[in-house]
Design goal:
24% of the residues lie in helices and 18% in strands. It is an alpha+beta fold. The chain has a single domain, classed as Muramoyl-pentapeptide Carboxypeptidase, domain 2 (2-Layer Sandwich), CATH 3.30.1380. It has a 5-stranded mixed beta sheet with strand order 3-4-6-5-7, with helices on one face. Strands 1-2 form a two-stranded antiparallel ribbon. The longest helix has 16 residues. The chain starts with 26 loop residues before the first helix and ends in a 10-residue tail after the last strand. It binds zinc ion.
Length: 166
């Protein structure tokens, strides 16, 4: 959920907020809250085609991190993105978000971002995480399961999650 961005849609009508691929990750958190289709908010759900091994891998990574971070709630600030929405928020052209392989994660309350990043880095040693971005100013860590052998890491300077270009 992204209540900071879309306060009026914090609890979408008719949505089963708790349903998802695992008890700690809902379909709404995985969906793209697309603002490119105006005037109505368009929620593009995590594609059916990706709901197999690809999603399982991502969920396993998420659960490893969640457990290592103390089993506290972790906010997902971005998951699946449509190409149009990815472009709107200034994502990389071939962002793993559009392929359903990426999550931007905000650490649980009381855990510093650096410490949370270190947990995600440790997760990359034992899970399918192959992309790891540290977004200090925005306060989140990007993880993805891109198909490659070696881990790629970077530091992002995005000022806040999902920065909308104007
Ligand atoms: Zn990301």
């Amino acid at each position: 959920m992204q209540p900071d961005l879309y306060p009026e849609y914090a609890v979408p009508i008719g949505a089963a907020v708790s349903e998802g691929p695992c008890p700690f990750l809902s379909w709404l958190e995985l969906a793209c809250w697309d603002r490119t289709v105006t005037p109505h908010l368009f929620i593009a759900h995590y594609p059916d085609d990706y709901r197999g091994e690809r999603l399982n891998r991502l969920v396993k990574c998420f659960l490893w991190i969640r457990h290592a971070a103390g089993d506290h709630p972790i906010r997902v600030s971005s998951a699946y993105r449509t190409f149009a929405y990815n472009d709107l928020v200034g994502g990389a052209e071939w962002s793993q978000h559009v392929f359903g392989r990426a999550l931007d994660l905000v650490p649980p309350d009381g855990l510093a971002l650096r410490a949370f990043y270190d947990i995600c880095r440790a997760a990359a040693e034992v899970t399918a995480i192959r992309g790891l971005g540290y977004y200090d100013a925005a306060g989140f860590v990007h993880i993805d399961t891109r198909p490659r052998v070696d881990l790629v890491t970077w530091t992002g300077d995005r000022p806040k999650p999902e920065a909308i270009r104007v």
